[in-house]
Amino acid sequence: MSVLDSLRAELGDAVSVDQAQLTQVRTDKSGHASSAPPIAVVNARNAGDVQATLRLASEHRVPVVPRGAGTGLAGGAIGGEGEIVLSTLGMNRILELSVADQLAVVEPGILNGDFNDSLREHGLWFAPDPASRAISTIGGNIATNAGGLLCAKYGVTREAVLGLKVVLADGRMLTLGHRTVKGVTGLDLTALMIGSEGTLGVIVEATVRVRPLPRGGAVSIAAYFADVTNAAVASAAITAAGLQPAVMEIIDSRGLEAIDDHLGVDLSSLGAVHLLVQTDGPAAEAEADEALRIIRSQGGEATMSSDPAEAERLLAIRRAFHPSLAARGTVLIEDVAVPRSKLPDMFREITRIEREYGIPIPTVAHAGDGNLHPNFVVTGEIDDTVWRAAGEVFEAALRLGGTLTGEHGVGTLKKRWLAAELGSDQLELQRQVKAVFDPHGILNPGKVF
Ligand SMILES: Cc1cc2nc3c(=O)[nH]c(=O)nc-3n(C[C@H](O)[C@H](O)[C@H](O)COP(=O)(O)OP(=O)(O)OC[C@H]3O[C@@H](n4cnc5c(N)ncnc54)[C@H](O)[C@@H]3O)c2cc1C
Known about the structure:
Blueprint: H1 3-11, E1 15-16, H2 19-24, E2 40-43, H3 47-60, E3 64-67, E4 84-87, E5 94-98, E6 103-106, H4 112-120, E7 124-125, H5 138-144, H6 151-154, E8 161-167, E9 173-177, H7 189-193, E10 202-209, E11 211-212, E12 219-225, H8 228-240, E13 247-251, H9 253-263, E14 273-279, H10 284-297, E15 301-305, H11 308-319, H12 321-326, E16 330-333, E17 336-337, H13 343-357, E18 363-366, E19 371-378, H14 384-399, H15 418-437
Bound molecules: flavin-adenine dinucleotide.
């Protein structure tokens, strides 16, 4: 019996060969696509479906690509020829909410935004806030260790996960982690699974930390600088002073020009580069006062406000960054991180690479954690020249003590640079770890390693 017949016999309607769905799962939001459609998509309804799929795929030695909402930017959830795509999108229930223990147990397919909507009525929230939170799943957020605007203060996804249920390549189920605040029994396989991009197991349940919503309003600072280096020096000085803004974002001059065009505004007349700072919690006002002083000492022109409408207006400007670039052409959205003190150097490197290659690279930075998104904007395809320029950006980040990817992951797109960061010994060790979890190499092959 073929793998498709075996899956159908055991899972019935959960197995789809609908052309539209097979086409959809050939790509993700990176724009990268596989060269041919997969054999089928299994739309898992429960953990049992996931176990059956992996057991049968293992018996048939057929590769399985785990997939959430397909919003990934690294080509990690793309299914191709001879593969089964295993979607956990339909497993979207909240199984438990404990206000007393500040935790929730959820299935992997629930959208981050829907989960937060449900928590709000209890005065709680799930802190990891990728800009894609309305459209991405908690399972995908965990598998990529997603970050967001607020993670410098409130942590990336790793800090919000206490435990996981994971199905291994052969169909066995593991229960990892704990429900307690502390817990150090054995090796931390929960942490190993977070950010593993579907290469070690399929997440079927997550026990996550939820927090009380911050008390009091936020204070926002809209600052403008003549030069991106000054903005980067100011943001690095804010964190060096021990301040912890909830949001700290830099939009460079090319980004601001694109936003001006897209929204029909003229922010660039206020200054070439925009720095947005928002503080929250009991110390919001004192922290904002101190941040404002630092900004002005670096030559920034700034206004401060505690009006929620102004806070939302400023966040909307930041959210307009990607749509405004998409309106200008084909965009390769990149993602590197450097130590925060090196942000000014990294911006200088990006300017150099932009000049050398003649490709506009509008850049936005989560300055609070040193994570930059240089965006390569071209009129045609993302060709080898663009990838060479991107490669120089990755190498510059590594030279500055940074990393290839702050939050989007390696997927298919950054594989070729992995050894440059990990070194050959560590890369080999990581491959051996993968082989322990997945001896036949059926889980998301061709991704990451
Ligand atoms: C407009 C936009 C803004 C974005 N902003 C951010 C941002 O601010 N921060 C950020 O970090 N990312 C961001 N992203 C990228 C993306 O949304 C995140 O990587 C997100 O976490 C992916 O979730 P998903 O459900 O779409 O996963 P998918 O894209 O479906 O999958 C991503 C990876 O996770 C694996 N995976 C998915 N589900 C499971 C599972 N149940 N078990 C095991 N592995 C699984 C897949 O195999 C794949 O390797 C953005 C994307 C877009 C389009």
